């Protein structure tokens, strides 16, 4: 029952570095602009939709998040470009979980900053 990819449990190694457009507005940096990437310190596993789990259906949902200077998730959206075939129930479960995550904030010149990142949430098929 692997809900998250093993790499998610190791922190910043799980953050995507692709330069995809962010759904967020305002002042924030991307991963390529920070000196230190945010690191997940509290991760809530998403609830596996029961019907999909019984059917042994799995998938990956890419979630774009905005992490503030205190390490809180202040914005989260499904990356529509990456998730055209992902089940909507997986997306809802992934969003609900990721909004509860906490991070060690990203740093630029030693100062905590808002950072937009993309995180894969994996639902296993077994």
Overview of the structural elements:
The chain is elongated and about 50 Å long. The model is unreliable at 1-14 (pLDDT under 50). The protein has a 4-stranded mixed beta sheet. Strands 2-5 form a two-stranded antiparallel ribbon. The chain has helices at 50-54, 88-98; strands spanning 29-30, 39-42, 59-67, 73-78, 102-104, 106-108, 111-113, 115-123. The longest helix is centred in the last third of the chain and has 11 residues, at 88-98. It is 13% helix and 31% strand. With 126 residues, it is an alpha+beta fold. Strand 6 and strand 7 form a beta hairpin. The chain has a single domain, classed as TolA/TonB C-terminal domain.
Overall shape:
elongated
Under CATH at level 1, the class stands as Alpha Beta
Overall domain count: 1
Poorly predicted segments: 1-14
Along the chain, the helix and strand elements come as EEHEEHEEEE
**Biggest sheet, in brief?**
4 strands, mixed
Helix content: 10-25%
Determine the CATH superfamily: TonB
How much of the sequence is in beta strands?
25-35%
**CATH fold field value:** TolA/TonB C-terminal domain
- The second-level CATH architecture is 2-Layer Sandwich
Tell me the total number of β-strands: 8
SS element count, helices: 2
What descriptive keywords fit this protein?
single chain, alpha+beta, TolA/TonB C-terminal domain, four-stranded mixed sheet, two-stranded antiparallel ribbon, 2 helices, 8 strands, 31% strand, disordered N terminus
């Amino acid at each position: 029952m692997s809900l998250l990819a093993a790499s998610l449990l190791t922190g910043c190694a799980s953050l995507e570095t692709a330069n995809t457009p962010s759904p967020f507005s305002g002042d924030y940096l991307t991963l390529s602009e920070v000196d230190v990437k945010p690191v997940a310190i509290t991760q809530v596993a998403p609830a596996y939709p029961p019907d999909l789990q019984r059917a042994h259906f799995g998938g990956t949902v890419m979630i774009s998040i905005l992490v503030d200077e205190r390490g809180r998730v202040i914005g989260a959206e499904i990356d529509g470009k990456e998730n055209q075939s992902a089940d909507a129930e997986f997306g809802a479960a992934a969003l609900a979980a990721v909004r509860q995550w906490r991070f060690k904030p990203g740093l630029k010149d030693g100062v905590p900053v808002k950072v937009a990142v993309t995180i894969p949430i994996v639902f296993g098929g077994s």
